[in-house]
Amino acid sequence: MLIRRKEAKDYGTKKLIEGRFEQGEKCLIIEDVVTSGTSVMETVDALKSVGVVVTDAVVLLDREQGGADRLSSQGIKLHSVCTLTKVLDILQKADKLSAEMVKKVQTFISENKFEPITVNKRAVSDDTRNSSESNKRNKKCLKYSERQDLCYNVNGKKLFAIMEAKKTNLAFSADLTYSQTLLDMVDCIGPHVCMVKTHVDILDDFTPQFTEQLKKLASKHNFMIFEDRKFADIGHTVKHQYSGGVHRISGWADITNAHIVPGDGVIKGLKEVGIKEGKSCVLIAEMSSEGNLATGDYTKACLKMGEEHRDFVIGYICQSRLSTDPAFIHMTPGVQLKEGIDALGQKYLTPHEVIANKHSDVIIVGRGIYSAEDPLAAAKMYQEAGYKAYESQFD
Length: 395
What we know:
The longest helix is centred in the C-terminal third of the chain and has 18 residues, at 375-392. The protein is built from 15 helices and 15 strands.
């Protein structure tokens, strides 16, 4: 038997899915009541994220408000012990409900049904990108809350939920070299970011206590932790780099990233470790540095690998939207309030250009915040600019 927690705890196994299982095994979901089917789908997604297959669910009571059809549209067959119609019939025959009340309930059911999910959750091929402009626009302009329901990994759902709740698409790139300086900065600007991106290997005074303190701040301010490790080795090696060593990244970072130079073995290696821990990965499809080689066929191969490992890969590091599948999250580094280029070839784009014109989802800002005279004021400015650009797509 497996148990799905609503969220991973900071103690015990710290996993969303509890129990003994192996990847590829099938699981039957048992639920008490189904209305829209959302709770069952969340459980399905959580199980898929750890490699468990689900095709059927059993429910004690189906309220007949569209849940069965919504689940069916996602490949899940619902088996109900009883329906609300049967309950009403039994209660009416036992003189526990009047015919008038039964009619009122039946009217409520018919007028408050949830529509089946119709957005295609399959991989988006290059041919799909040549479809009509209206279809592309519809997918670009789905709101965070709508895209949240389409994610294949629980961390994708969580990130969209945070962005919606906090009204921010700002990720802070905490490229600082001392632990306490970094923690103080994060505590200051935490209310304004959806994610904090770290490079723990540049910390001069790293200790395991640092990551515990960072996790507490993530819980306090409701943001996700992204360790920008940029794994780029064979699967066997990255498994140990991810789970072991002094940093033990898989134990505290919600998200990490990887280059695809070694092939999809790098994803498989990370996945063997991360998926059991409820973690996820983003792939580096494009870079913001001048003269980089992450272009053309490399970028296309990166998208294909992401689609093939969508239960673990939640998106891409890129300069603009690359996939028309709304489940994938696009994160763009090199963002400043003014466009430009630094002495080392780092190109900078504005939040409006990245979000509204290039249709990325997350702006990643480092020096624009931590080098500012007032980092808190700068973070607020980036938060406002990024979210305003997002909202402008729905005007």
